[in-house]
Amino acid sequence: MRPLRWLAAGLLGLGLAAGPALAGQTFDTIRSRGTLNCGVNVGVAGFSLPDSQGVWRGMDADLCRGLAAAMLGDPAKVRFVPLTAVQRFTALQSGEIDVLIRQTTLSMTRDTSIGLRLVIANLYDGHGFMMRRDANIREPKEMDGMTICLSPGTTNELVTTDWFRSNKLRFTPVLQERMQDNAQALQAGRCDAIGTDATQLAALRSQFTTPNDYVILPQRFSKEPYGPVVRRDDQEWFDVVRWTVSALINAEELGVTSQNAEEMRRSSANPEIRRLLGADPVLGNTLKLDPAWAYNAIRAIGNYGELFERTLGPKTPIGLDRGLNRLWTDGGLMYSWPMR
Asked: Would you indicate the residue range of the signal peptide (predicted)?
């Protein structure tokens, strides 16, 4: 036993033994700076797009605000950094941003090979195609020979290439970084179709002058779960991001909303609600945050259902049904790990 103890001591001295991750710089830097630097899209309706007053609106923008509320107690303490698909990972790797919340598909190679950590899915989507309605295309196998606008460095570029090759069909790619440029190219006739995730297609179409002139094919060709991305250097910050998103999902499961959170925090006898809203401080203590961290996020942006309906739902110009993004109790995939 003595040699084993000596070996363990030697490994500890070299920093090689297993143990808790060192506290990284991101968590402490955000606290010290007093502002969250959040990477978002350069502009996609329903996700992150400045309004006429320059205020960023959409699901991704609001998730940034929710994180700022959880971490710093104030949803306004966030700096939005607009990034293209090509720029996004470099900006995170370099420390320009603290977290990337920008329609980024969670995939194995991204999680294991570029020094980043994919945190949790906040939206489930799938690759699709949009084209002019008068093209009379009913299914993708009729798209042989088309010119398709795509954004480079995305999973959509790979999905389109793989699908056409596997079906022995031809297409000509037109690669442009900004999805808005792809939308303009489609409307101007410089490409026959756009290939990207269905939610983005719906968002782009909502901004067209004549949206009804364009159709999104119903077929889906991939799994595209979106989620926040952080660097690998800070387990504490990773935990804050993961559990803030989980808290929004859990709040919907428990019936906690932006409107009733204050009353429920004060009067609810449900132990799950008391833990979630900080009446019982155990969850905040484990994250080294204020006991009201989740309460602050929910009050700022609502539970997950409120967030979806306000930014992407049927009553918005995007007009999306929740589909896979319903709660697990309603046939969807949204499911929070137990918060206890």
From this structure: 1-23
